[in-house]
Amino acid sequence: MTQASETRLAKFLQVAESLKPKLRTRLDKPVGVVEVEQCLQASMGWKARVVSDDSVSKTLVGKEQVIFDFGGHRTGHLSFDIEAIKHGIEPADAPCRLKIVFGEILNDVCESFENYSAWISPSWLPDEIINVDDFPSRVHIPRRHAFRYVKFCVMSTSSRYGIRIKDPVATALTSAPWQDPAPLSFEHFQGDLTADQKTMLRKIDQVSITTLRDCMQTVFEDGPRRDRRLWIGDLRLQALCAYDAFQDFDLAKRCLYLFAGLPFNDQGLLCACVYEKPVPLAGGNSLVDYSMLYAVTLLDYVKASGDMETGRDLFDTAARQFRFYASNFDEELRYDLKSEGVDGLRLVHFVDWQPKLIKDNAEHAIMIYCLKAILELSQLLQVNPPRFDIGGKIDQPLESIIESLVHAHRMHYYHAQRGVFVSGIERQISWAGNAWAVLAGVPETVEQSQEALRVAYEDPESIVGMTPYLHHYLCDAFIEAGLQDLALRHILKYWGSMIEAGAETFFEAWNPDEPRSSPYGDLHANSFCHAWSCTPSLLLRRLGCA
Amino acid sequence: MTQASETRLAKFLQVAESLKPKLRTRLDKPVGVVEVEQCLQASMGWKARVVSDDSVSKTLVGKEQVIFDFGGHRTGHLSFDIEAIKHGIEPADAPCRLKIVFGEILNDVCESFENYSAWISPSWLPDEIINVDDFPSRVHIPRRHAFRYVKFCVMSTSSRYGIRIKDPVATALTSAPWQDPAPLSFEHFQGDLTADQKTMLRKIDQVSITTLRDCMQTVFEDGPRRDRRLWIGDLRLQALCAYDAFQDFDLAKRCLYLFAGLPFNDQGLLCACVYEKPVPLAGGNSLVDYSMLYAVTLLDYVKASGDMETGRDLFDTAARQFRFYASNFDEELRYDLKSEGVDGLRLVHFVDWQPKLIKDNAEHAIMIYCLKAILELSQLLQVNPPRFDIGGKIDQPLESIIESLVHAHRMHYYHAQRGVFVSGIERQISWAGNAWAVLAGVPETVEQSQEALRVAYEDPESIVGMTPYLHHYLCDAFIEAGLQDLALRHILKYWGSMIEAGAETFFEAWNPDEPRSSPYGDLHANSFCHAWSCTPSLLLRRLGCA
C-alpha cells in the first residue's frame, strides 16, 4: 500500500473515531420473579408466569434458581445485591458460586446449554459463573449482555446458608434516543385494517424500534448478543431505520468511515464486517453483495443527511467495489457465481442463509441495483461516474454497463412463460431472485414486476427466505412494485408470528413453521435481537401507516 | 446485653479497626511453564518439569491448557495478558471462555475437581471461569487466591483463533515484612546434626516463615485458601511465631480485640473464630479449649510486647471463660466431656481432628494450662485473679483451684504402672493427653514428664496427632520436658516429610503415611498453607538452632 493510501485510511479512521457516540443509559428494574413451564401452545415451547412483583428472590439453597423478568429486551449491564441467609447462627462460611444466565427469550433461561451443538463457538452462550466471597455484596457484572430475563442458579453455597438476590438493576445502553417515534396512526392509510391488525402492527412497530435501539451502540451492531459486529448488509438496513426513527445520521457516517478505513485488501475491496474493539480491525472476509451494497448505504446516507462532503470523501471507496466483480460477467454478461475475483480470491455471495438458494440471478440484480446507486451518487455529488472493463470490453461508461446488465438479466433469467425470474440450470424460482430483480428495475413493466413477485411468493416450489434480511427485501420489492397489500400481509404474517412467539425484539433467524431452526445448528446460538430484522417500522411508514 | 457492655464491645472493635494493617505487595513473575506427569515416587503423586522459562504460553486451542509455576507460594492476585492468535486472516471472532485453576500444590492443577467429595462446600475449590471479549486484554482477577501454580484451560475460543497467555504477574500480599529472619546458624546448637539435616532444617525454617507470612493478612488467617478466618487456636501459634520472626505485635493485638469485641453470647463466652469481612462478625461456634486458650494468647502477647494496658483491657475477657466450664468438673474434679455448659450449650472440644481421640485428660490439662496463664497474667498486670465455683464449692481462689485440678488430673488420668497419662474408661494412651499434661505441669518430676511422653510417642497403640496443631504441642511438650532430641527428631520427621512431598508452605492436615488424607473427605478441600503448621521456625529457635 502506498504512503498516500495509508494516510487516507488513517484519516478515515480518525473521522470514525471523532464520531464515536457517548452511550445513553437507563436504569431498569425487573417486573418481578417468574416461574416457567413447558407449554405446547407456545411456539417456542415455554410460558412464564409472574409469581411475585418483588425485586427479591426467595432464599435459594442447593441447586435452586430464580428468574427475574425485566419486562422487555435491553442491551446493557446487570448489577444486584446478594445476601446470605444463614440457617443457624453461623454466618456465611464459604463463598457462593453462582451461574447467571441472560435470556433474550424464555428458551435461554428454560433450557440447558449442555448439549449445545452449533458450529459456532459456545463461548457466545449467554451465561457466566461468578464467585462471591463476602455478604452482603453489590455485584456488578462487567460484561455487557442482551437480555429480558436473568436466571440466577446456585452452584454451591455451604450447608450453613442460602442466598437471596435483591434489587437487580439493568443499566440499559444505546446511542439512540430512549424516546420512541410517534406510534403508528393509520390516519392516512389507504385500505382496511381490523382493530386486531392495527394492534399487531403497532406492536410490530414498537418491537422494530426496540430491536434497532438495542443494536445501536458505538456502531450499528448486527446483534448485541452475538456477534456484536458491524456488517455492511445489516448497516444498510439499520441506518435507513435510524434516519427514519431517530433522525440519527452520525452513527451511519461513523460506520461508513470505519469500513472505508479498514479495507479487506490493498486494492480497497471492502470487508463484509469490521471489528470495533479493542481497536478497529478489518474483518476476515468479504461478501460480494455486501461490498457492493456499500454504495447504496452511502447513497441512502447522502440523501437522508444532505452531507455531500462525506459522499464525495467516500465515493471512490463505494465506486471501486465493482472493479473486483466486473470480470465475473462472461461475454454474454451472465454472472458467474463460481468465477474467481481479483487475486484469486474465492468469492462469497450472501443474499440469504437459505442453503437451497441458487444465487446467480439475485447477485446479478444486486450488481445492477448497486451500480444504479453509484450512478445516482455521481450525479448527486457532481463527480464523474466510474468506468469499468466488462464482458471483454474495456473502459465502458457506467450508464451503458447498467443498460447492458439489465438487458442481460432479462435475457438470462426471465422465464416469460411463467412470468417469473429463475436461476440456475434448474430454473429455480425464489423470493431472492425476484425481489432483487424488481428492486434492480429489471422488469419492463410494473405488471411484470407484480407478476414475478406473485409467482415467486405463491409458487409452492419457490425457495423462500430464511433470514429476516431477505424478508425485508421481499417487502421492499412488493412496495416498489405497488403491491402494498402483499407487503402489509407479509409483515403481519412474518414479523407478526415472531410477536406471537413472544418476541420483544426481532430475531436473527425465524421460520414460523420451524421455530427452533437455526443457521448454526442450535437455537441457542441464534441472536434474538438482530439488526436485519428491525425494518418493519420503516416499511410500515412507507406503507402509509404513520 | 447492657448498654455498658455494648459500649465496651464497640470500643474493642474500634481498637481492632484502628490496628488494621496496610498490606505490603510484591510483584512476582513465574519461573516458567511446566509440564506435569504422574510419578509413583512422589508422595503426592505428581512431578513437574520446567519446559520453558518464558512468561508466555504456546498458542492454545481447543481444550488445551498451560501451567505457569511461580516458584513458590503466595497469597495474592493474578493478572495476565491474553492475546488472540488468529489462524487465518479473521481476527478473534468470538469471546474466549477460560478456566483458571490456582494451585497451592501440584495436585490442584493436575487433578480434576469433578468428583469432589468433601463435606465442605465445593465453592472453596480454587478455580474460576472467565470470559474475555476483546483481544489483546490485560486481565485482572479480582478475587484473592493462594497459589504457586496457575493453570489456564481453554474452555472455548472459536475455530478462527487460539489464545496465548503472556506475562502473568502475581501481586503477593501480606502484612508481614518480605524480609525473612536470619537463617538458622546452628552455631550454638548443642548436639550433632549432619549437613543434610541442617539443610533440611533450614528449609523447614524457611517454609515455616512463608506459611506464617502468607497467612498474615489484615488478620491472622488460618489459611489464605480456606477458610481465611481468624481462629483462637491458630492465632495463639501464629502470634507467637510473628513475635519471634517479625517482631510484629500489632496484628496479634488487633486479633485479640476482635475476639473480645465479638463474643459468642451476652455473657462474654468467646467464639472459636470470627469473620473479618465484609464487617467483623462473630462466628457461629465456640470451642472449649479455644476460648480457654485466649488467656494464654493474651499472656504471650503481654510478655512479648510489654503492653500492660492491653493486658488489663482484655483481662476480664480472658479470665471469665472458665466461668462457662468450671461446672464441667464433677465433685471429684474429673472433667466431664459430656456435661452441658451454661445455657444448655453443647460443648465442643477440639484438641485435634483425630476422630479416635478420647479428650478428657487433654481438656482437663488444657484447663490447668490456661488457668495458670490467667494467674500469671493477674500477677503481671497486678490485678486480682478471678475466683470460681468448682467441684460443688463456691468462690474458690484461683491458686487453690489450679492446685486441686493438678492433683485431680494425676489421680484420674495417671497410669503409674505404665508411667503415662490415659483417658477414658479404655485408658487410652495418646499424644494429646500426655503433651497437654506435661505442658500443664501435671507430672510431679521431669522424669515423669519424660517417661509419659516417651511412652505416648513410642507405644504402637498410642493415638497420634492428626493436625500439625497437635504435632506442635507435642514438640512443645518435648522441649518443656527437656527432650530436645525428640523434638528435633520429630520436626525433621514430620515437617521434613511435608518438605519431601514438595511443600512450599506447610499443610493444614498431613499424615506422611496417607498423603491424600483429609479431615473433609477430599484432598482438594485441604488448605496447603495453614497457620497452625507454621511453628517449626519458633520451635527450632527454642532448640538453640538460631
Key terms:
homodimer, 546 residues, alpha+beta, 14 helices, 36% helix, 21% strand, globular, Alpha-L-rhamnosidase six-hairpin glycosidase domain-containing protein (chains A, B), Glyco_hydro_78_N (chains A, B)
Question: Helix tally of chain A?
Answer: 14
Count of DSSP E strands of chain A? 16
Look at the helices and sheets of chain A and give the structural class.
alpha+beta
How large is the share of residues in beta strands of chain A?
Answer: 15-25%
Mean pLDDT of chain A: 96
CATH topology of the domain at 28-173 in chain A: Jelly Rolls
Distance between the termini of chain A: 49 Å
What general form of chain A does the structure show?
globular
InterPro entries (chains A, B): 6-hairpin_glycosidase_sf (IPR008928), 6hp_glycosidase-like_sf (IPR012341), Bac_rhamnosid6H (IPR035396), Glyco_hydro_78_N (IPR049164)
Pfam families (chains A, B): Bac_rhamnosid6H, Glyco_hydro_78_N
Organism (chains A, B): Filobasidium floriforme
Protein name (chains A, B): Alpha-L-rhamnosidase six-hairpin glycosidase domain-containing protein
Any overview of this molecule?
Chains A, B: It holds the Pfam family Glyco_hydro_78_N. The structure is a homodimer of 546-residue chains. Chain A is 36% helix and 21% strand. Chain A is an alpha+beta fold and 546 residues long. Chain A has a domain at 28-173: Jelly Rolls. In chain A, strands 1, 2, 3, 4, 5, 6, 7 and 8 form an eight-stranded antiparallel β-sheet that branches. In chain A, a hairpin with a 7-residue loop joins strand 2 (32-38) and strand 3. In chain A, helix 4 packs antiparallel against helix 5. Chain A is globular, with a radius of gyration of 25 Å. Chain A binds chain B through residues 86, 88-91, 93-97, 119-124, 128-129, 131, 133-137, 143, 155-160, 226-227, 229, 275, 277-278, 281-285, and chain B through 86, 88-91, 93-97, 120-124, 128-129, 131, 133-137, 143, 155-160, 226-227, 229, 275, 277-278, 281-285.
